[in-house]
Design brief:
With 428 residues, this protein is α/β, with parallel strands linked by helices. The chain is built from 13 helices and 15 strands. It has helices at 44-53, 74-84, 99-109, 124-136, 151-159, 176-186, 209-222, 245-248, 281-289, 297-308, 312-337, 366-376, 405-427; strands spanning 8-9, 60-61, 119-122, 142-147, 163-170, 173-174, 192-195, 225-229, 255-260, 272-275, 342-344, 352-357, 378-379, 381-382, 395-399. Strands 1, 3, 4, 5, 6, 7, 8, 9 and 10 form a 9-stranded mixed β-sheet that branches. It starts with 7 loop residues before the first strand and ends with a helix.
């Protein structure tokens, strides 16, 4: 079990208030901010990109969950761009997405129905999450999230005024027994249940089939949407696949699925999609037209051509092989340099390990450890950044996908130095 204290969160406890100094009547030059501005909590994860870019010394980067630069098919993209991009690639596209890409997604990625009316192309996975909360969440609604979780998702719920209920995660994903208990104790039923079922960000755990079935039953009992966020499902490198929500309950109207090409091709393309009840299509288009009119058209053309020219399956197979190698290398380095000082999860795919400090080391704050580690030349995401209420001071997330085994070992050595310094501070 990943230890957590269940609680309902309405305000993020880690990030400084982004409205500080501009909405305080005593500060002068008052700006007429909307009440919802107070719910814009930002992302420690995304902010780490700018923070790392500002560093001038060498850093082993275990922080951002991005594909390794060397596995992105850059040369193929460059070649395809020269061949397929035309004048039509640089004007506005259909809000719901380019027709050819919708066809490709429908044929290759839509378990259950092959109805293209279920598919809307989005500007990355984050836009899919935003559309889901925009459609289904009113201020004060209860939204269930895993704990720890991807706080860009829970932060989006907070930005729409939701109350976020954190439910513990163990080696089999969200604890459904705890979910039932916590919802009963809250005295109200959730409007939405946000889950990352495969190789969860940040824990790396996978929701078991039995729990997926129970979650579907509870969603129908409560009349709650399941927000099925699965960026990593194609990256299983060991073990047997677990049936997805759409395989268990085809075309279930209470399942809203968000997908992205960011983890399997390149995050800079900013192209993803949602798979949802066709009755939502007009609402999704209207919601998206208030955001960006259309997703990146040249990127849609490049992705569609890349997938349909062949080699995409080989690309995925190569990713699985390489990420398995890198995950095993991180496991070995952790065992070699940290031993019993930490406990880690054991993902069968995806990008992440969740690391929990043990014994006397557990007195070290991972937020303080991050500061020391950055100076020592290694970066990770501290646990409180992955909990809406700022829990998990004794834990942190490591990304194994973006570093070679050699760099991973160097990074773990630097992390040990940082942990020793942090221990001296605590003991001093």
């Amino acid at each position: 079990m990943i230890t957590t204290t269940p609680r309902i969160t309405t305000v993020h406890s880690l990030d400084p208030n982004p409205t500080a100094g501009i909405s305080d009547p005593t500060a002068g030059n008052l700006l007429p901010l909307a009440r919802r501005a107070g719910g814009l909590v930002g992302s420690v994860i995304d902010s780490s990109t700018s923070l790392l870019a500002a560093q001038t010394h060498d850093i082993v980067r275990f922080a951002m969950g991005a594909p390794a630069a060397e596995v992105i098919p850059t040369e193929e993209f460059r070649q395809i761009a020269g061949e397929v991009l035309t004048d039509a690639s640089f004007t506005y596209g259909a809000t719901e997405g380019e027709p050819d890409l919708i066809t490709t997604v429908t044929e290759q990625y839509s378990s259950g129905s092959s109805d293209p009316e279920r598919i809307v192309i989005t500007s990355g996975g984050m836009q899919g999450l935003d559309l889901a909360f925009k459609l289904f969440t009113d201020p004060g609604d209860l939204v269930v999230v895993e704990s720890p979780t991807y706080t860009n998702g829970s932060g989006t719920a907070l930005s729409y005024g939701a109350d976020v209920l954190e439910v513990p995660v163990d080696d089999n994903g969200m604890d459904i027994d705890a979910l039932e208990t916590l919802v009963a104790e809250s005295g109200r039923t959730p409007r939405m249940i946000y889950t990352i079922p495969n190789f969860q960000n940040p824990s790396g755990t996978t929701l078991s089939e039995g729990r997926r079935r129970r979650l579907l039953n509870l969603a129908h009992q409560w009349g709650a949407m399941i927000l099925d966020d699965d960026p990593y499902g194609a990256l299983r490198f060991s073990g047997d696949p677990v049936p997805g929500f759409r395989e268990i309950s085809p075309d279930d109207p209470l399942v809203f699925s968000v997908r992205t090409f960011s983890k399997i091709l390149a995050p800079g393309l900013r192209v993803g999609w949602v798979n949802a009840d066709p009755r939502l299509r007009k609402l999704l288009i209207a919601g998206k037209q208030a955001m960006d009119t259309c997703a990146n058209v040249p990127a849609q053309h490049i992705i569609n051509a890349y997938i349909n020219r062949g080699g995409y399956g080989e690309h995925l197979a190569g990713l699985r092989t390489e990420y398995k190698r890198r995950k095993e290398a991180m496991d070995a380095s952790i065992a070699r340099h940290l031993g019993t000082r930490v406990r880690t999860t054991d993902p069968a795919g995806g990008f992440f390990l969740w690391v929990t400090l043990q014994g006397d080391d557990a007195r070290v704050s991972s937020s303080r450890l991050f500061e020391i580690a950055l100076a020592e030349g290694v970066a990770f995401i501290p646990g409180p950044a992955l909990s809406p209420s700022g829990q998990f001071q004794d834990a942190f997330r490591l990304c194994f996908a973006s570093s070679t085994p050699e760099r991973t070992d160097e990074g773990l050595q630097r992390l040990v130095r940082a942990l020793d310094i942090a221990r001296e501070e605590v003991d001093g």
